[in-house]
Specification:
The chain is an alpha/beta fold. About 55% of the residues lie in helices and about 10% in strands. The longest helix is centred in the last third of the chain and has 20 residues. Bound molecules: adenosine-5'-diphosphate (ADP) and magnesium ion. The site of adenosine-5'-diphosphate has 14 residues, from helix 7 and helix 13.
Length: about 325
Amino acid sequence: MASADQLKALLKSHLEGDDGRFFSVAMQVAAHEAKLGHGKLAEELRALIDQAKARRGLPPQSGEKAIPISRPRGDLANLLTVSYPKLRLGEMVLDDALANQLNRIIREQRQASKILAHGLSPRRKLLLMGPPGTGKTMTASVLAGELGLPLFQVRLDGLITKYMGETAAKLRQVFDATDRTRGVYFFDEFDAIGSQRGLANDVGEIRRVLNSFLQMIEQDESHSLIVAATNHPEILDHALFRRFDDVLHYELPDEAHIAAMLKTRLGEMAAKGVSWKRLANTAVGLSYAEVTRASDETLKEALIEGHQEITEEDIRRTLNERQQILKRLKSR
Ligand SMILES: Nc1ncnc2c1ncn2[C@@H]1O[C@H](COP(=O)(O)OP(=O)(O)O)[C@@H](O)[C@H]1O
Ligand SMILES: [Mg+2]
Protein backbone atom coordinates (compact mmCIF):
# COMPACT_ATOMS: atom_id res chain seq x y z
CA MET A 1 0.00 0.00 0.00
CA ALA A 2 1.02 3.60 -0.59
CA SER A 3 2.36 5.36 2.48
CA ALA A 4 0.36 8.06 4.28
CA ASP A 5 2.72 10.71 2.91
CA GLN A 6 2.23 9.49 -0.62
CA LEU A 7 -1.55 9.57 -0.21
CA LYS A 8 -1.43 13.11 1.15
CA ALA A 9 0.87 14.25 -1.65
CA LEU A 10 -1.44 12.67 -4.22
CA LEU A 11 -4.52 14.42 -2.85
CA LYS A 12 -2.74 17.75 -2.42
CA SER A 13 -1.30 17.82 -5.94
CA HIS A 14 -4.66 16.82 -7.38
CA LEU A 15 -6.54 19.52 -5.46
CA GLU A 16 -3.95 22.11 -6.47
CA GLY A 17 -4.13 21.02 -10.08
CA ASP A 18 -0.39 20.24 -10.11
CA ASP A 19 -0.39 17.47 -12.75
CA GLY A 20 3.37 17.13 -12.90
CA ARG A 21 3.62 16.49 -9.18
CA PHE A 22 0.57 14.21 -9.23
CA PHE A 23 2.07 11.95 -11.90
CA SER A 24 5.45 11.85 -10.24
CA VAL A 25 3.96 10.79 -6.87
CA ALA A 26 1.78 8.22 -8.62
CA MET A 27 4.92 6.78 -10.24
CA GLN A 28 6.59 6.61 -6.83
CA VAL A 29 3.63 4.58 -5.57
CA ALA A 30 3.97 2.23 -8.54
CA ALA A 31 7.72 1.85 -7.95
CA HIS A 32 7.08 1.21 -4.26
CA GLU A 33 4.61 -1.58 -5.09
CA ALA A 34 7.03 -3.09 -7.59
CA LYS A 35 9.69 -3.19 -4.87
CA LEU A 36 7.28 -5.00 -2.57
CA GLY A 37 6.94 -7.62 -5.27
CA HIS A 38 3.43 -6.50 -6.30
CA GLY A 39 4.52 -6.53 -9.92
CA LYS A 40 1.03 -6.84 -11.36
CA LEU A 41 -0.36 -3.92 -9.36
CA ALA A 42 2.71 -1.82 -10.23
CA GLU A 43 2.20 -2.54 -13.89
CA GLU A 44 -1.50 -1.66 -13.71
CA LEU A 45 -0.67 1.62 -11.99
CA ARG A 46 1.95 2.47 -14.59
CA ALA A 47 -0.48 1.67 -17.39
CA LEU A 48 -3.14 3.92 -15.80
CA ILE A 49 -0.63 6.75 -15.47
CA ASP A 50 0.53 6.38 -19.06
CA GLN A 51 -3.09 6.36 -20.28
CA ALA A 52 -3.91 9.51 -18.34
CA LYS A 53 -0.78 11.21 -19.63
CA ALA A 54 -1.50 10.20 -23.19
CA ARG A 55 -4.95 11.79 -22.88
CA ARG A 56 -3.26 15.03 -21.85
CA GLY A 57 -0.78 14.73 -24.70
CA LEU A 58 2.17 14.08 -22.39
CA PRO A 59 4.93 11.52 -23.05
CA PRO A 60 4.71 8.27 -21.05
CA GLN A 61 6.58 8.30 -17.77
CA SER A 62 7.29 4.62 -17.42
CA GLY A 63 9.89 4.91 -20.18
CA GLU A 64 12.52 3.35 -17.94
CA LYS A 65 10.56 0.09 -18.11
CA ALA A 66 9.65 0.29 -21.77
CA ILE A 67 11.30 -2.34 -23.93
CA PRO A 68 12.83 -1.20 -27.18
CA ILE A 69 11.06 -2.97 -30.00
CA SER A 70 13.62 -5.14 -31.68
CA ARG A 71 12.44 -7.26 -34.56
CA PRO A 72 14.98 -9.67 -35.91
CA ARG A 73 15.83 -8.74 -39.50
CA GLY A 74 17.25 -10.55 -42.50
CA ASP A 75 18.33 -14.17 -41.94
CA LEU A 76 17.69 -13.80 -38.25
CA ALA A 77 13.98 -13.38 -38.91
CA ASN A 78 13.87 -17.05 -39.89
CA LEU A 79 15.78 -18.09 -36.81
CA LEU A 80 14.22 -16.04 -34.02
CA THR A 81 10.64 -15.22 -33.11
CA VAL A 82 10.30 -12.33 -30.72
CA SER A 83 7.56 -11.70 -28.18
CA TYR A 84 7.09 -9.59 -25.07
CA PRO A 85 5.46 -11.83 -22.47
CA LYS A 86 3.78 -10.32 -19.44
CA LEU A 87 3.72 -13.57 -17.49
CA ARG A 88 4.75 -13.49 -13.81
CA LEU A 89 6.29 -16.12 -11.57
CA GLY A 90 3.22 -16.05 -9.33
CA GLU A 91 1.22 -17.59 -12.16
CA MET A 92 3.23 -20.80 -11.98
CA VAL A 93 2.68 -23.63 -9.56
CA LEU A 94 6.15 -24.70 -8.46
CA ASP A 95 7.78 -26.91 -5.88
CA ASP A 96 9.97 -25.13 -3.35
CA ALA A 97 13.28 -26.05 -4.94
CA LEU A 98 12.29 -24.68 -8.35
CA ALA A 99 10.67 -21.59 -6.89
CA ASN A 100 13.88 -20.84 -4.98
CA GLN A 101 16.05 -21.33 -8.03
CA LEU A 102 13.89 -19.12 -10.22
CA ASN A 103 13.63 -16.42 -7.57
CA ARG A 104 17.39 -16.43 -7.21
CA ILE A 105 17.92 -16.10 -10.95
CA ILE A 106 15.47 -13.19 -11.15
CA ARG A 107 17.03 -11.45 -8.14
CA GLU A 108 20.54 -11.83 -9.52
CA GLN A 109 19.44 -10.45 -12.89
CA ARG A 110 17.72 -7.49 -11.27
CA GLN A 111 20.91 -6.69 -9.36
CA ALA A 112 23.17 -7.58 -12.28
CA SER A 113 25.08 -4.30 -12.36
CA LYS A 114 25.99 -4.60 -8.69
CA ILE A 115 27.15 -8.18 -9.17
CA LEU A 116 29.14 -7.38 -12.32
CA ALA A 117 30.79 -4.38 -10.64
CA HIS A 118 32.34 -6.84 -8.18
CA GLY A 119 33.71 -9.04 -10.92
CA LEU A 120 31.05 -11.71 -10.42
CA SER A 121 28.42 -12.78 -12.91
CA PRO A 122 24.71 -13.30 -12.42
CA ARG A 123 23.27 -16.68 -13.36
CA ARG A 124 22.10 -16.51 -16.97
CA LYS A 125 22.89 -19.78 -18.77
CA LEU A 126 20.13 -22.15 -17.77
CA LEU A 127 19.32 -25.77 -18.54
CA LEU A 128 15.70 -26.81 -17.99
CA MET A 129 14.93 -30.52 -17.98
CA GLY A 130 11.82 -32.56 -17.38
CA PRO A 131 8.80 -34.20 -18.98
CA PRO A 132 6.52 -32.32 -21.41
CA GLY A 133 3.88 -30.03 -19.95
CA THR A 134 5.70 -29.19 -16.73
CA GLY A 135 6.36 -25.51 -17.40
CA LYS A 136 9.71 -25.24 -19.18
CA THR A 137 8.45 -23.05 -22.01
CA MET A 138 6.33 -21.13 -19.52
CA THR A 139 9.46 -20.47 -17.47
CA ALA A 140 11.17 -18.79 -20.43
CA SER A 141 8.15 -16.48 -20.74
CA VAL A 142 8.09 -15.81 -17.01
CA LEU A 143 11.77 -14.86 -16.98
CA ALA A 144 11.20 -12.42 -19.84
CA GLY A 145 8.06 -11.09 -18.14
CA GLU A 146 9.67 -10.63 -14.75
CA LEU A 147 12.77 -8.96 -16.18
CA GLY A 148 10.99 -6.86 -18.79
CA LEU A 149 13.10 -8.43 -21.55
CA PRO A 150 12.08 -9.58 -25.02
CA LEU A 151 11.76 -13.34 -25.45
CA PHE A 152 13.56 -14.68 -28.51
CA GLN A 153 12.45 -18.21 -29.32
CA VAL A 154 15.05 -19.91 -31.45
CA ARG A 155 13.29 -21.69 -34.29
CA LEU A 156 14.87 -25.06 -34.68
CA ASP A 157 13.16 -25.63 -38.03
CA GLY A 158 15.06 -22.62 -39.35
CA LEU A 159 18.26 -23.72 -37.70
CA ILE A 160 18.51 -27.35 -38.61
CA THR A 161 19.53 -28.14 -42.13
CA LYS A 162 21.10 -31.10 -43.82
CA TYR A 163 24.49 -29.52 -43.70
CA MET A 164 26.30 -29.35 -40.45
CA GLY A 165 28.38 -26.35 -41.51
CA GLU A 166 25.24 -24.40 -42.30
CA THR A 167 23.62 -25.18 -38.96
CA ALA A 168 26.74 -24.08 -37.13
CA ALA A 169 26.84 -20.81 -39.10
CA LYS A 170 23.23 -20.13 -38.22
CA LEU A 171 23.88 -20.85 -34.57
CA ARG A 172 26.72 -18.35 -34.77
CA GLN A 173 24.26 -15.70 -35.97
CA VAL A 174 21.98 -16.37 -33.04
CA PHE A 175 24.86 -16.01 -30.59
CA ASP A 176 25.92 -12.76 -32.27
CA ALA A 177 22.40 -11.51 -31.55
CA THR A 178 22.64 -12.32 -27.83
CA ASP A 179 25.44 -9.78 -27.67
CA ARG A 180 23.64 -7.11 -29.70
CA THR A 181 20.19 -7.30 -28.12
CA ARG A 182 19.77 -8.26 -24.49
CA GLY A 183 16.93 -10.70 -24.09
CA VAL A 184 15.89 -14.20 -23.08
CA TYR A 185 17.08 -16.57 -25.83
CA PHE A 186 15.14 -19.80 -25.63
CA PHE A 187 16.33 -23.01 -27.29
CA ASP A 188 13.35 -25.32 -26.82
CA GLU A 189 13.95 -29.05 -27.24
CA PHE A 190 17.50 -28.21 -28.10
CA ASP A 191 18.52 -31.87 -28.18
CA ALA A 192 16.96 -31.83 -31.67
CA ILE A 193 19.90 -29.70 -32.79
CA GLY A 194 21.93 -32.85 -32.95
CA SER A 195 19.35 -34.83 -34.90
CA GLN A 196 19.71 -33.34 -38.33
CA ARG A 197 17.52 -34.56 -41.12
CA GLY A 198 19.34 -36.86 -43.44
CA LEU A 199 22.14 -37.41 -40.99
CA ALA A 200 20.10 -39.28 -38.43
CA ASN A 201 22.40 -42.26 -38.53
CA ASP A 202 25.67 -40.47 -38.41
CA VAL A 203 26.32 -40.32 -34.71
CA GLY A 204 29.62 -38.53 -35.14
CA GLU A 205 28.00 -35.63 -37.02
CA ILE A 206 25.23 -35.36 -34.47
CA ARG A 207 27.69 -35.12 -31.61
CA ARG A 208 29.69 -32.43 -33.38
CA VAL A 209 26.72 -30.13 -33.96
CA LEU A 210 25.54 -30.49 -30.40
CA ASN A 211 29.07 -29.87 -29.22
CA SER A 212 29.49 -26.72 -31.24
CA PHE A 213 26.21 -25.49 -29.77
CA LEU A 214 27.45 -26.18 -26.25
CA GLN A 215 30.73 -24.46 -27.00
CA MET A 216 28.91 -21.37 -28.19
CA ILE A 217 26.96 -21.33 -24.95
CA GLU A 218 30.16 -21.62 -22.99
CA GLN A 219 31.87 -18.83 -24.92
CA ASP A 220 28.89 -16.47 -24.81
CA GLU A 221 29.83 -13.37 -22.84
CA SER A 222 26.69 -11.36 -23.44
CA HIS A 223 24.25 -10.11 -20.81
CA SER A 224 21.39 -12.09 -22.29
CA LEU A 225 19.78 -15.10 -20.68
CA ILE A 226 20.37 -18.32 -22.54
CA VAL A 227 17.76 -20.90 -21.72
CA ALA A 228 17.93 -24.41 -23.16
CA ALA A 229 15.13 -26.91 -22.52
CA THR A 230 14.86 -30.64 -23.11
CA ASN A 231 12.29 -33.36 -22.52
CA HIS A 232 15.00 -36.01 -22.81
CA PRO A 233 17.58 -35.47 -20.10
CA GLU A 234 18.57 -39.13 -20.36
CA ILE A 235 20.24 -38.64 -23.73
CA LEU A 236 22.40 -35.80 -22.50
CA ASP A 237 25.96 -36.23 -21.49
CA HIS A 238 26.50 -35.19 -17.90
CA ALA A 239 29.63 -33.34 -18.92
CA LEU A 240 27.47 -30.68 -20.53
CA PHE A 241 25.89 -29.62 -17.25
CA ARG A 242 28.96 -27.64 -16.30
CA ARG A 243 28.46 -25.30 -19.24
CA PHE A 244 25.34 -23.95 -17.54
CA ASP A 245 25.13 -21.69 -14.50
CA ASP A 246 22.07 -23.51 -13.22
CA VAL A 247 20.23 -26.74 -14.00
CA LEU A 248 16.51 -26.77 -13.23
CA HIS A 249 14.59 -30.01 -12.83
CA TYR A 250 10.89 -30.05 -13.70
CA GLU A 251 8.61 -32.80 -12.52
CA LEU A 252 5.01 -33.88 -12.87
CA PRO A 253 2.79 -32.25 -10.25
CA ASP A 254 2.05 -34.16 -7.05
CA GLU A 255 -1.43 -34.23 -5.53
CA ALA A 256 -1.00 -30.98 -3.63
CA HIS A 257 0.18 -29.15 -6.77
CA ILE A 258 -2.69 -30.56 -8.82
CA ALA A 259 -5.19 -29.49 -6.16
CA ALA A 260 -3.67 -25.99 -6.15
CA MET A 261 -3.89 -25.78 -9.95
CA LEU A 262 -7.52 -26.91 -10.05
CA LYS A 263 -8.49 -24.56 -7.26
CA THR A 264 -6.94 -21.47 -8.84
CA ARG A 265 -8.45 -22.17 -12.24
CA LEU A 266 -11.89 -23.43 -11.19
CA GLY A 267 -12.36 -22.20 -7.63
CA GLU A 268 -14.50 -19.26 -8.59
CA MET A 269 -17.14 -21.32 -10.36
CA ALA A 270 -16.98 -24.48 -8.28
CA ALA A 271 -20.04 -25.67 -6.39
CA LYS A 272 -19.90 -25.90 -2.60
CA GLY A 273 -18.33 -29.05 -1.29
CA VAL A 274 -16.04 -29.77 -4.25
CA SER A 275 -13.08 -31.71 -2.86
CA TRP A 276 -9.90 -30.64 -4.61
CA LYS A 277 -8.07 -33.36 -2.78
CA ARG A 278 -10.33 -36.12 -4.09
CA LEU A 279 -10.06 -34.70 -7.60
CA ALA A 280 -6.28 -34.38 -7.40
CA ASN A 281 -6.10 -38.02 -6.43
CA THR A 282 -7.76 -39.06 -9.70
CA ALA A 283 -5.48 -36.77 -11.70
CA VAL A 284 -2.13 -38.12 -10.56
CA GLY A 285 0.08 -38.83 -13.55
CA LEU A 286 -1.20 -35.87 -15.56
CA SER A 287 1.14 -32.98 -16.32
CA TYR A 288 0.49 -29.35 -15.42
CA ALA A 289 -0.42 -28.77 -19.05
CA GLU A 290 -2.95 -31.61 -19.00
CA VAL A 291 -4.55 -30.40 -15.78
CA THR A 292 -4.75 -26.90 -17.29
CA ARG A 293 -6.33 -28.35 -20.40
CA ALA A 294 -8.91 -30.33 -18.39
CA SER A 295 -9.78 -27.23 -16.35
CA ASP A 296 -10.29 -25.19 -19.49
CA GLU A 297 -12.47 -27.92 -21.01
CA THR A 298 -14.61 -27.97 -17.86
CA LEU A 299 -15.05 -24.21 -17.99
CA LYS A 300 -15.94 -24.27 -21.68
CA GLU A 301 -18.56 -26.95 -21.14
CA ALA A 302 -20.15 -25.00 -18.31
CA LEU A 303 -20.26 -21.91 -20.50
CA ILE A 304 -21.83 -23.74 -23.41
CA GLU A 305 -24.39 -25.45 -21.18
CA GLY A 306 -25.12 -22.16 -19.44
CA HIS A 307 -24.34 -23.63 -16.01
CA GLN A 308 -23.64 -21.17 -13.22
CA GLU A 309 -21.67 -23.74 -11.26
CA ILE A 310 -19.20 -26.52 -11.87
CA THR A 311 -19.65 -29.75 -9.94
CA GLU A 312 -17.03 -32.21 -8.78
CA GLU A 313 -18.41 -34.68 -11.30
CA ASP A 314 -17.89 -32.19 -14.18
CA ILE A 315 -14.26 -31.78 -13.25
CA ARG A 316 -13.71 -35.49 -12.70
CA ARG A 317 -15.08 -36.22 -16.16
CA THR A 318 -12.63 -33.97 -18.01
CA LEU A 319 -9.75 -35.18 -15.84
CA ASN A 320 -10.66 -38.80 -16.65
CA GLU A 321 -10.78 -37.91 -20.32
CA ARG A 322 -7.19 -36.66 -20.10
CA GLN A 323 -6.16 -39.85 -18.29
CA GLN A 324 -7.72 -41.94 -21.07
CA ILE A 325 -5.88 -40.00 -23.77
CA LEU A 326 -2.64 -40.37 -21.86
CA LYS A 327 -3.16 -44.11 -21.48
CA ARG A 328 -3.79 -44.53 -25.19
CA LEU A 329 -0.65 -42.52 -26.05
CA LYS A 330 1.43 -44.61 -23.69
CA SER A 331 0.19 -47.93 -25.02
CA ARG A 332 1.19 -47.09 -28.56
N1 LIG B 1 4.26 -25.31 -13.38
C1 LIG B 1 3.17 -24.84 -13.99
N2 LIG B 1 2.33 -23.99 -13.36
C2 LIG B 1 1.22 -23.53 -13.98
N3 LIG B 1 0.87 -23.84 -15.23
C3 LIG B 1 1.66 -24.68 -15.92
C4 LIG B 1 2.86 -25.20 -15.35
N4 LIG B 1 3.45 -26.00 -16.27
C5 LIG B 1 2.67 -25.97 -17.35
N5 LIG B 1 1.60 -25.18 -17.17
C6 LIG B 1 0.53 -24.92 -18.15
O1 LIG B 1 0.72 -25.80 -19.24
C7 LIG B 1 1.05 -25.09 -20.44
C8 LIG B 1 2.12 -25.79 -21.23
O2 LIG B 1 3.31 -25.90 -20.47
P1 LIG B 1 4.76 -25.70 -21.10
O3 LIG B 1 5.45 -24.62 -20.37
O4 LIG B 1 4.65 -25.55 -22.57
O5 LIG B 1 5.42 -27.10 -20.75
P2 LIG B 1 6.80 -27.69 -21.30
O6 LIG B 1 7.53 -26.61 -22.02
O7 LIG B 1 7.51 -28.17 -20.07
O8 LIG B 1 6.43 -28.83 -22.19
C9 LIG B 1 1.49 -23.71 -19.94
O9 LIG B 1 1.27 -22.73 -20.91
C10 LIG B 1 0.62 -23.53 -18.71
O10 LIG B 1 -0.68 -23.12 -19.06
MG1 LIG C 1 7.94 -26.61 -24.03
